[in-house]
UniProtKB/TrEMBL annotation:
Residues 1-17 form the signal peptide. InterPro entries: DUF2252. Keywords: Signal. Coiled coil: none annotated. The keyword Cell inner membrane does not apply. PROSITE patterns: PROKAR_LIPOPROTEIN. Residues 23-45 are annotated as: Disordered. Residues 24-44 have a biased composition (Basic and acidic residues). Transmembrane segments: none annotated. This is DUF2252 domain-containing protein.
Length: 478
């Protein structure tokens, strides 16, 4: 595919055609530069339009697709969240100029989160009820080189900190934050080499110093109750708990959908048999099932169900809420080098891939994690909890809060990448990740400098793309 670079990088590691101008003829060069810039801008906008149309073609309802674009219009960071396939397409076409020899170096591959950004690390409770800070959301998880995650997260640091309402973060400070992330990631890998059990350490209140993350965990523990959580999404109708009937995001199932869902439900119970068999009769009785619309940003358009279960008792206080989300081919396949044949050999469905990815990368994972098949699609199932919280821009009051967040995010990513190597299953990742990755960094002494530069450069690309995206929406081309 033709490589189109919109940004001219003054200090680029690779030379980009069209970014060097003849200043000895000022009367013509300025005009030429403007013409080339306009042409490049138009080409990038056309490319962006095509990429977004292809990535969202699965959304049949134009109203839902328009709602996704509306969310993406809210900010460059939201645009970034909604365009994960574009990031991988830009890796393929050279907009992000990763050297070919890096991509061919398989010993630095592991299970990735696949959509790394500042709101895909969160505080949540594990299956034992313990709150911890860790990487979340594995719908795009698959095996690839670690820097796909680290680079994407580092670019998100620039985007996210642009939107902090209580702190003005300078460009120099943003660069420093991205550098802190990468340095902490490397240090954590070194710690794992020295002590392999390091990768299984949890970032919990007990392991945290008095600081921003610990405070967030404490506030969550004190501020949220399961009763309030159920009260926000359910109500009693004729004495029976159901999802809120007047909430427009909850859509009842049609009769034929209900019948097909029941068939899929029975198979789901089989997929968690070791857990389900320990529960009392009636525990998994479905009290209500609805379609859930308008969830997230990148997830908008995916088919999602909410399921209300009986739980341990007949009363509503211990009802269980499950999210059943459609799974698709991971966005990183847009990069072009991954083998779909190997993917299909390994996994019977996208949902099965998500299940294995969650087990590979996680610790004390959700006991309800399973797979469900209905209407020709595969779905991943998980339990919803009131104790799940992404970090919002308004949470950060001091630069030190952001620094702490970035440091712990780096630790979480490094530990996750290392956990998912051959110690999980050598069939997927047949090597020790931490040792190979640090060796790779030493063999490439400019690695950190390059990644930092590319993360900032791609941040600027996203800002420009966001402006082009606004133009596409305003001109009704999307």
């Amino acid at each position: 595919m033709k490589r189109i670079l919109y940004l001219c990088i003054a200090t680029s590691i690779v030379a980009t055609a069209g970014c060097s101008f003849d200043t000895s003829k000022p009367d013509t060069s300025h005009s030429k530069q403007q013409t080339e810039h306009a042409s490049s801008k138009e080409a990038r906008q056309t490319y962006l339009q095509k990429q977004l149309q292809e990535a969202n073609a699965f959304i049949q309802d134009p109203t839902i697709r328009a709602n996704k674009y509306k969310k993406m219009m809210e900010s460059p960071f939201n645009f970034y969240r909604g365009t994960t396939p574009l990031y991988y397409s830009d890796l393929r076409t050279g907009v992000i100029p990763i050297p070919a020899e890096w991509n061919q170096h398989t010993p630095i591959q592991t299970w990735l989160e696949g959509d790394a950004h500042a709101q895909n690390v969160a505080v949540f409770d594990d299956r034992e009820g313990t709150l911890r800070f860790d990487v979340t959301d594995f719908k795009n998880s698959y095996i690839g080189p670690f820097y796909w995650d680290t680079l994407r997260f580092m670019s998100s640091i620039f985007l996210f900190t642009d939107e902090l309402p209580y702190i003005k973060v300078s460009k120099a400070q943003q660069k420093q934050l991205a550098s802190i992330f990468l340095q902490t990631y490397q240090t954590t890998l070194q710690n794992i080499i020295e002590n392999p059990m390091e990768k299984y350490k949890e970032i919990r209140k007990e392991q945290l110093k008095n600081g921003f993350i610990q405070k967030q965990i404490e506030e969550m523990k004190l501020s949220y109750t399961y009763e309030a959580f159920l009260g926000q999404i359910t109500s009693l109708q004729n004495g029976k708990p159901i999802f809120l009937p007047n909430d427009p995001s909850f859509v009842p199932l049609r009769t034929e959908e209900q019948e097909d869902f029941t068939k899929g439900w029975n198979e789901y119970i089989k997929s968690i048999a070791s857990f389900a068999d320990k529960k009392p009769e009636g525990y998994f009785m479905r009290k209500d099932v609805v379609h859930k619309q308008n969830s997230g940003v990148g997830s908008v358009g995916r088919d999602i169900f909410y399921v209300l279960l009986e739980g341990d008792t007949a009363g509503p206080a211990d009802d269980i809420v499950l999210e059943v989300k459609e799974q698709q081919l991971p966005a990183m396949f847009a990069e072009g080098q991954l083998s779909k044949e190997e993917y299909n050999r390994w996994f019977t469905s996208h949902a099965e891939r998500t299940r294995i990815a969650t087990l590979a990368t996680g610790m004390k994972v959700d006991s309800y994690l399973g797979t469900l098949y209905t209407q020709g699609r595969s779905y991943s199932v998980k339990k919803l909890s009131p104790w799940y919280r992404e970090f919002e821009s308004a949470d950060f009051r001091k630069l030190s809060d952001v620094e702490e967040f970035v440091q712990y995010a780096a630790k979480a990513f490094a530990r996750m990448h290392a956990r998912a190597d051959q110690d999980y299953n050598p069939a997927y990742v047949p090597h020790h990740f931490a040792e190979n990755t640090l060796a790779f960094m030493k063999q490439n002494p400019k690695f950190s400098q390059q990644l930092l530069q590319w993360s900032e450069t791609y941040y600027h690309q996203v800002i420009e793309d966001y402006t082009l995206f606004q133009g596409l929406i305003q001109s009704k081309k999307l």
